Amino acid sequence: YILKSLTANRKLLKANPPLTSVTGDHGDHHGVQSVFEVEGMLAPVFTPMSEEGAVNLSVIPAYMEHLKKHRVNGILVSGTTGEGMLLKVEERKSLLEAWVSVARPAQMKVIAQVGGGPLPDVLELAKHAEKLNVDGIMTLPELYYKPRTVDQLISYLQTVSAAAPTLPLVYYDFPMMSGVNVNMKELFTSASSKLPNFKGAKADLNVAEQVAHLLAQDQKIFIANHHIAPSVLMGHDSSIATVVNLFPELVHNIRQAVKDGEVAKARLLQRRLNALVDAIASKGDFVSSMKTAMELKTGIRVGPTRSPLVPLNCVQRKDLRNSLIELDCSNIGGIIAPVFTPVDSDGVVNLSVIPQYAQYLQDQGVDGILVAGTAGEGPTVNVTDMKHMIDAWINVSKSLNLSVIIQLGGRPLPDLQKLAAYSEQAGADAIMTLPELYYKPTTARQLVYFMQEVARYAPETPILYYHIPSYTDVDGLDMVEFWRLATQRIPTFLGIKSAVFETSLMLQDQVKDDQKIFIADSLYLAPAVLMGFRDIIMIEINLFPTLVEEVVSNGSRGYTKTAISKYRRMRELRSVITKEGGSISALKEAMPLVSGIDVGSIRPPEIRLTTDQTIRLEQRLRNAGVDIVNSEFQD
Questions:
Q1: Alpha helices in 173-303 (DSSP H)
Q2: Which residues constitute the signal peptide according to the record (predicted)?
Q3: pLDDT digits (tens, 9 = 90+) for 608-621
Q4: Number of compact structural domains in the chain
């Protein structure tokens, strides 16, 4: 489809540009013609549901943040993807209100799909949408007393448009579901003359090709499927496709490649998108599969589908998770903060700090968190407290679209296995483990066996190895052999967090598309990024997330001087802090000073800073030009 005649079609469109419309030039009609300025990538948003099937509006703010972060231009509410036809009128109203309330501050366009119900309900929803001043309404045809002719369909659309006369109207053409299949060229010709606010349709690529020469300047075809590359090649660069929710960056890159004339690149990216859609859709009902994939890919809890749609069962969900991992579509990666474990003045784990902490990280653009790692003093936390921490971090992080990795190691294997099972049940995105600390593995085979024993208690959850010989004394293993065996024998093996840069370099060529190497030593951050590493887990992310992000973003774009400048500043500040004591102890004491998040002091057996050391630490940071957010001392 991409290769055959699309370039010719695009040239044809340029030679015969679309008809332009002037306000009031669509024939003899009444009413005010609306302005329609919606284009680009639109997401037909899922309707978040609780496990009991109730609409869950609390997820919507985080969902909007995800879309905004990935440059989505607008949303369609209550479409097929959003299960609009399965919602009560009041639910659809509340849902639209919730989306509008977050879309406006985000400068996101909103189209309300009002069709799919009895005509009185459709008209009520259209009037409600107009009161909310959305950017347009969309409607399906009547679903039972189906229009059989273009004139019958036009009459229906006129009735709907009259209920919201100031809003643009888009027709939702989906014959496979609605059973209404009229001549779309006749529909566009007739609607353009009889409906002042008719602005186009959501339809497939075949329809787009049929009506391209009929489109007025203010009319559009929103492509309704994932055929992004051929659509843009044909001149239709606006789409409302389910995949925009899950893979917005991939969709954006396909569109940009076509616009830049890089057709070969667009073809490769489109093939990847096709493979993803095929893998997801093969697991069950399309909406149910996509909704489950949305959770697995992004971490946003959109919940199950509503009856009569059938949610994926445990086997299907596991199969889908494995397929996404194989296609490198887990939501694990990027800049991950190894969070400090908050404690009170008595050294007791303080869960009340976690919501504020997670919000701070999300506000700073961090992609995820690692719980109970070295910075989090994981090996000093007992099993009961670990469970409480797992629940607290997962509950708050999922609402903020942060991925969650749980580090389990540093304890007897039975406890480790128990926590692995608990982490999977709680919804962790991945688990991580240190090696056995007393009966240390001396060969790669022994280390893989140990990880197998952990992984079998969380069979659906990706697992990472934590390579930090300076703490574990497990060194000298053949890490290439370890990687090979782990890949062969552990289906969920995701990769490693490596505190040894030489090991990371050694393994770089071994990494498959669905695997990761997380760089853990800030000393090598800039060199690592400049050599192609993009996944980072290091303690400095807690204190200086913006600096770390600037190193990664500038280095990955080839701005070497800027990346190195930011890297040197980060290392300078780390040096300022660690002059007053052990690195973790000093960095934890500095956390409230630079972020305002009071995570408390380090717990035994590590040694906390004295009061004098903390006073000097604050003064050193001031001297280094750091704004102190939360000073504990008065001059």
A1: 175-178, 184-194, 205-211, 228-233, 243-246, 248-259, 263-281, 286-298
A2: none
A3: 899 999 999 999 99
A4: 2
